[in-house]
Amino acid sequence: GGYGDGAPDYGKPRVLADVEDQLSILAIERFDVLFIHDPPRIEPTLAGGGTLEGLEEARTRGWVNYIGYGMNSHDAHLTVIDSGRTDALLCFSDFNLLRQTAADRVLPAAADADLGVLNGWSIMRGWLTGTPLEQIAPRDKWNDDQQRAEVMRLWCEEHGVTLLSLALQFCLREARIHGNPVGNLNVQQLEANVAAASKPLPDEVIEAFQAAAL
């Protein structure tokens, strides 16, 4: 209920209607997991008759196995974790080669609560795939993250590894993260991602990269 003009509909009925509708469209009986995605405000989703209660009811009805939130705010994640009402969470843009801020509070709290964690943006919108950044954006438009990503790409070239392998395997080494969803635009990207994740890099490579403090 958060798209278009006007205030979002945080109500339980809207959630149940949406879930039922999507099950019908996809012709499936149950979702593995459903996330409340980036709510503008967290409090209405947790209130009685709110969004999370709708997902809890969907879980009770057998429409979904696991429920949680997909969002960036660490304070909001901690509030939800403290509620004890969810099974999983999705964080994004906060555990990858460029930054690991999720490790400060969110990952420890999620581990203590035995929650599943999905880590979005492990390749940061393609900046950490090894594609030269000039093919993605003009150099004079690069932000700090993109400038650092290009430095990392050059480091990988010098050390005979691919940035994609380093980016994915760095995230895969974090035991408190249970999945790193990566989008694939085509078969070529899918095969590249699988290959990059499948052949483990030596510990020395990871350690050398971290020591470089790029």
UniProtKB/TrEMBL annotation:
Q: Could you name the Gene Ontology cellular component terms for this entry?
A: cytosol
User: Its Gene Ontology molecular function terms?
Assistant: oxidoreductase activity
Gene3D superfamilies reported in the protein's UniProt record: NADP-dependent oxidoreductase domain
Occurrences of domain NADP-dependent oxidoreductase (ranges): 9-211
Q: Which PANTHER family match?
A: GH17980P-RELATED
**Protein's name according to its UniProt entry:** NADP-dependent oxidoreductase domain-containing protein
From which organism does this entry originate? marine metagenome
